[in-house]
Amino acid sequence: MGPPDDRMFRVLLRLRVRDAAGFERAWLAVGDSVTGHPANLGQWLMRDTDDDGAYYIISDWTDEASFREFEHSREHVWHREQLHPYRESGSMVTMNVVYHLKPGGQPAEPEAAPR
Question: What are the backbone dihedrals phi and psi of residue 111, each rounded to the nearest 5 degrees, phi first?
């Protein structure tokens, strides 16, 4: 049996970039094209501690259908175009969040997207 439709959906991107400083500036400049979407719950940019050219981007969504809608939108195409000059390679993994453990807490019910 698959997860309920109301579980939070997470996207993890791994990118190799050239010109790390330029990439970070461009990512910040276009970030609201993702976080401005009503189904987006936030996103994070992380740089690998062992490889300065490797970055990870995590974005959380209320559900997969909303992410897929955004993924095929003009806004996302524009977002990718702004970052493309810095990108050497990349991969994407998608997942449903099953549990979220908070400090000092016990396992909770399966994580549902906030309503």
Answer: -70, 125
- Structure tokens that stand for 107 in this block: 């396992």
Q: Look up residue 3 and give its two tokens.
A: 């997860």
- Residue pair 60/94 in contact (Cβ under 8 Å)? The answer is no
pLDDT for 37-62, tens place per residue? 999 999 999 999 999 899 999 999 99
| pLDDT per residue as tens digits for the range 90-104 | 999 999 998 888 787
pTM (global) more than 0.90: no
The full set of domains in the chain, from first to last, is 9-96 (3.30.70.100)
CA–CA gap between residue 71 and residue 29 (Å, rounded): 18
> How far apart are alpha carbons 44 and 64 in whole angstroms?
18
